[in-house]
From TrEMBL:
Positions with biased composition (Basic and acidic residues): 1-18
Protein name: Late competence protein ComEA
Biological process annotations from GO: DNA repair; protein secretion by the type II secretion system
GO CC terms in record: type II protein secretion system complex
Domain Helix-hairpin-helix DNA-binding motif class: 56-75, 86-105
Pfam families, A to Z: HHH_3 (PF12836)
Length: 108
């Protein structure tokens, strides 16, 4: 019986050892790794042409809801096509912070 108990303990210890070996430590990415991940994400983003997009398409840009999408279209209708992405800051409700957030998702 003592042999059986030791045998069971040995099996349990072996299971624990196996479980511990399969666990991988989780670490936060370094700044360069995080930058690479962001760059890869931005490369995979489907960009929206703000000179031709409809409201529903513009709403796919982070930070742009229905009202701002309509404001982009209204500005475009009144002033013609955007010549550069930075021109979006002339649209009511789009400031420097939102423009920076939008840039990876916008094309002309």
């Amino acid at each position: 019986m003592v042999t059986e108990v030791k045998s069971e303990e040995a099996q349990q210890d072996k299971k624990l050892d196996t479980a511990v070996e399969t666990v991988k430590p989780v670490t936060a990415p370094t700044k360069s790794e995080a930058g690479t991940a962001v760059a890869e994400d931005e490369a995979n983003v489907q960009k929206v042409n703000v000179n031709t997009a409809q409201v529903s398409q513009l709403m796919n840009i982070p930070g742009i809801g229905e009202k701002k999408a309509q404001a982009i279209i209204d500005y475009r209708t009144q002033h013609g096509p955007f010549r550069q992405v930075s021109d979006l800051d002339k649209v009511k409700g789009i400031g420097p912070k939102l423009l920076d957030k939008m840039k990876p998702y916008v094309q002309l």
